[in-house]
Amino acid sequence: MPDLNAIMIFIAGIVVKILLLLSCWLVFCIRNFPEITFRFISTLISPIVRLYIFRRIARGLEDRSRQYERLGFSSQERPKGKLVWIHAVSVGETLSVIPLIKELKKANKNLNVLLTTTTLTSAEIVKKHVKDTVIHQFAPFDVFSWVRRFIKHWNPDAAFFVESELWPNTLYYAKRIGIPLYLLNVRISTKSMRRFNFANKIFKISPFCVFSLVVAPSNEIKNFTIKLGAQNVIVMPNMKTMAKKLPVNQKNVQKLKKKIGNRNVWMAVSTHEGEEEIVIEIHKNLKECYPDLLTVIAIRHPNRLNDVSKLCCSLGVSCTNHTSSSIGSSGICEEIYILNQIGYLGNFFEIIDTVLVCGSLVPGIGGHNFIEPLQFNCNVATGRYIENFEDIHIHVRNCCNVLSSPNDIYFFVKESLENYQRNSHSAKYTDFGKQWRNLIKKISVT
């Protein structure tokens, strides 16, 4: 009678050998025929991708009425004239390309812009901010026949990809038919670098070689992309630097000046839970030197007004807020002024020299945009937890301090109140938005 265990071991050995042979064959194919291999693999797994789409629909992660866009079937006709395609993935990328879209339209008034994203939340952002400016479609999954169908329909004159959204079938096909490709705002984590290095070492894949231009946020990423095949790389800060200076209402600015009077004043912007307490304690310590000190706290989420007001009370400081302190009232006599309405920051940056950008004093948030106060030439500092804005800070480190502790913030505010004069400040903010606008003029489709 045959030994069942021996038979199972024999079969397992054969299976392992077959898998090893298939793996070697796959590595050989990708190294030598990458475009054909990725086409074949994507076609092979396309039924699984369809099932994945159905699962996402069931979980409410896809728009059921527009599901066929994910298969490359476009729901709108291509307009006549020049058209550029911008792929922005999710919310963060979508918000970052809004200034790009506006500048492209400004440089080319008759230009059509096709904006693709992959999530429902990003589609909502498109509706809210650029609904009448762009054609929005959900991007097709990277199955060759779906991608080909999509690109043939839209026939873009140029394509912009944001951050690190690199899909092989999409890029290979677009490059092969002669579409100029641009990679903007490249963001590559240390973990992603290891993956790219592995893929390049094993499969000889150089994903950056297909791009006419790669815009990197640092020399480190520039050198990395060149190592992986990029031919034309420049270093530029995040596209968020293209955002226009916040609006200022001079009439309200004058009223606000009268309300503040001659008091020493500083401002903490975009605060979150756990940060207001730090700011208030710093305020109490500074009051020993500046008895008339006014601290403005611009809370990130206006619905937290009651919580912050109660916190002020519990810590023994008086407070008022922008809603209850009407513009026409007399001067502010409270210690803390809570800005709880959106759209007024520009008025405050116009007046207040010293600004602490929060969302960075406690871990888990990642920081907020310090470009906005820098555009007013304020004296700006941020906390140390700025992982979401490190690529921007590289370019503004001479005029935006990173502070590690409440004690550092105390001395920053104290020194600023005593010595800072914005009109004579030596480390003035560079208008990176102008650099981006000049770049867009050079690469725009005419």
The level of helicity is 40-55%
The overall pLDDT, averaged over residues, is: 88
Sketch the major β-sheet: 7 strands, parallel
Number of domains: 2
If helices are DSSP runs of H or I spanning 4 or more residues, what is the number of helices?
Answer: 16
**Second-tier CATH architecture of the largest domain:** 3-Layer(aba) Sandwich
In N-to-C order, the SSE pattern is: HHEHEHEHEHEHEHEHEHEHEEHEHEHEHH
Give the neighbour order of strands across the main sheet: 3-2-1-4-5-6-7
Radius of gyration: 27 Å
Q: What is the CATH H-level superfamily of the largest domain?
A: Glycogen Phosphorylase B
- Strand percentage lies at 5-15%
* Helix-and-strand structural type: alpha/beta
Distance between the termini: 80 Å
Describe the structure in your own words.
It is a single chain. The chain has 446 residues and is of the alpha/beta class. The chain folds into 2 domains: 28-185, Rossmann fold; 250-424, Glycogen Phosphorylase B (Rossmann fold). The protein has 16 helices and 14 strands. The protein is elongated. 34% of the residues are buried.
A few lines on this structure:
The chain has 446 residues and is of the alpha/beta class.
